[in-house]
Design a protein that fits this description.
Layout (H helix, E strand, L loop, with lengths): L9 H39 L4 H14 L3 H18 L2 H17 L3 H17 L3 H17 L3 H4 L5 H7 L7 H4 L8 H11 L3 H16 L5 H17 L3 H18 L2 H17 L3 H55 L2 H43 L9 H17 L9 H7 L4 H12 L3 H19 L8 H7 L5 H12 L3 H18 L1
Keywords: Membrane, Transcription, Transcription regulation, Transmembrane, Transmembrane helix
InterPro entries: Homeodomain-like_sf, HTH_AraC, TPR-like_helical_dom_sf
Protein name: Helix-turn-helix domain-containing protein
Length: 513
């Protein structure tokens, strides 16, 4: 067989070489241009973060989707998190920070890893999830401790020490040590002086913060936080009209940010100021605005808490699963055949004992279920409530209809949504649930959902063959894990164990016949 060879004649060699050179130059230029474009977008996103978080978010999302650099992607996730945090969307802020943390750990970028951990710690602290906040803060400290290059970059500053020593602070430190959930450094110091009733020093630092921010552009968010806290200074000094003026300025800034939590805070402070001014019309106006803002904030907090519970429950389950696998591997390698037999015997015995215990729990559960209607009637007379009798009656009637309507199967059902459907507010509804049902909202809805699915399992045989994930979706739970957790909490056993016992009970009854 002849091998055909292709050769370029001299007149084609030079153009071909030029083409190859130009190809690599154009490819390199394109890559360089793309990198420059991403750097410009990062800069622009940072510039508008505190004046137009929605625009900053769009820039950052584009970078996260299109950048080839892991560092740029991590930085974009941090900007996404901060944008959502400024807008009060805490569940999405946590998720973006978690993505940044994961990627920073994978790429061994200690600086960005600490930044993401610090941001997560701040968010959790704002949501009063102290344990998680401390956990993230401790992780960040461990990384800083082992990497001396980070000591200066992440130097901590204590407000109490500044006040104690009357430290001299440069204007640059105001934003360097700013906290998104607390304000600039000078705002934080002013708040601390205000808490100590040192009004002269509080006024000094509020003024310093305002002066610094006015010299810069795109500082609307920081100015809003300063105005909100500055109004407390005037209110405490009974300068109510000035407090209102400052709060109006805060409200103007808030419109650009659209954060329901600060909208609520501003409306509440305006309502109190107008009450102090004895302006009933204005105080009533801001009372109504406050109620609307409260619904939005409770909805956001509910989403954030649900995300945290679901995420960390899954994470915990994965860790447990990995540990179990590791332990099994060690057993298979190290134990003899005789030891395996002993283990099987022990496991069988424990399983049998657990089965007996669960059966007792199972019987006890149905005894409680039979008595539940009598107990609910008894509970209705336990505590007096602070709302009117007519309102109380309307809410209880609405709850009875709600329980019979199966609306609780809606996985979007929340305290604000139910309150809206019952034509009341969340405070009254929570009070009635506490006094008459002896439950908070989540426990109340979960119990209705669990009782619903238990009834289905007992009365409809096909439900015994469905997967747990389908049962969870059927009765309104957002995830398999949250359903299993709620099921075990309410009756003391997992859905699978419960189904096994029903099957066994039906089988035994069939044999008797």
């Amino acid at each position: 067989m002849k091998i055909l060879k292709t050769t370029l004649t001299p007149q084609y060699k030079l153009p071909a070489a030029l083409f190859i050179v130009l190809y690599f130059i154009s490819t390199g230029t394109l890559f360089s241009q793309q990198k420059k474009e991403m750097q410009v977008l990062l800069y622009n996103a940072q510039q508008v973060l505190y004046s137009n978080p929605e625009q900053s978010l769009k820039f950052a999302q584009h970078i996260a989707k299109n950048s080839k650099s892991s560092k740029e992607i991590i930085q974009s996730y941090l900007l996404i998190s901060k944008s959502y945090l400024i807008e009060g969307k805490y569940d999405q802020a946590i998720e973006a920070s978690e993505n940044a943390k994961r990627m920073a750990a994978e790429s061994n970028d200690d600086s960005l890893h600490v930044s993401s951990l610090s941001l997560l710690s701040e968010i959790m602290n704002f949501l009063n999830l102290t344990e998680l906040s401390t956990k993230y803060n401790d992780e960040a400290k461990q990384i800083i401790k082992r990497n001396s290059k980070l000591h200066k970059e992440f130097k901590e500053i204590e407000i109490s020490e500044i006040i104690k020593k009357d430290a001299k602070l440069s204007p640059e430190m105001d934003l360097t040590y700013a906290k998104i959930t607390k304000g600039t450094l000078f705002t934080q110091i002013a708040k601390r002086y205000l808490e100590r009733s040192d009004y002269d020093m509080a006024f000094l630092y509020f003024s310093k913060s305002m002066e610094n921010l006015e010299k810069k552009s795109n500082m609307d968010y920081w100015e809003m936080l300063n105005f909100i806290n500055y109004s407390d200074y005037f209110f405490n000094n009974k300068q109510y009209e000035t407090a209102v003026e400052v709060l109006y300025r805060a409200a103007e800034k808030q419109k650009k940010i659209s954060n329901p939590f600060y909208e609520k805070e501003i409306n509440e402070k305006l309502m109190k100021s107008f009450i102090a001014l004895k302006d009933s019309e204005k105080s009533q106006e801001y009372y109504q605005k406050l109620n609307i803002a409260e619904v939005n904030t409770e909805s956001q907090l509910s989403l954030a808490n649900e995300w945290v519970v679901t995420h960390y429950e899954n994470k915990k389950n994965n860790i447990v699963h990995l540990k179990e696998r590791k332990q099994k591997n060690i057993i298979y390698i190290s134990l003899t055949f005789l030891l395996i037999i002993v283990v099987v015997v022990v496991v069988f015995q424990r399983s049998y004992n657990l089965k007996i215990k669960n059966k007792k729990d199972f019987i006890h559960f149905f005894e409680i279920m039979d008595q539940s209607n009598h107990q609910e009637q008894k509970n209705k007379s336990l505590k007096p409530i602070s709302v009117s009798l007519e309102t109380e009656k309307n809410i209880l009637t609405g709850l009875d209809k709600f329980e019979k309507s199966n609306k609780f199967l809606n996985d979007n059902m929340s305290l604000p949504l139910l309150a809206s459907q019952l034509n009341t507010n969340t405070k009254y509804l929570s009070k009635i649930l506490s006094d008459h049902k002896q439950k908070n909202f989540n426990f109340y809805v979960n119990e209705l959902r669990i009782n619903y699915i238990i009834n289905k399992l007992k009365t409809d045989p096909q439900y015994l063959n469905f997967k747990v994930s389908y049962l969870a979706e059927e009765c309104g739970f957002a995830s398999h894990n949250s359903f299993t957790f709620a099921f075990k909490k309410h009756i003391g056993m997992s859905p699978i164990s419960f189904i096994d016992f029903i099957k066994e009970d039906k089988k035994n009854n069939a044999h008797r016949l």
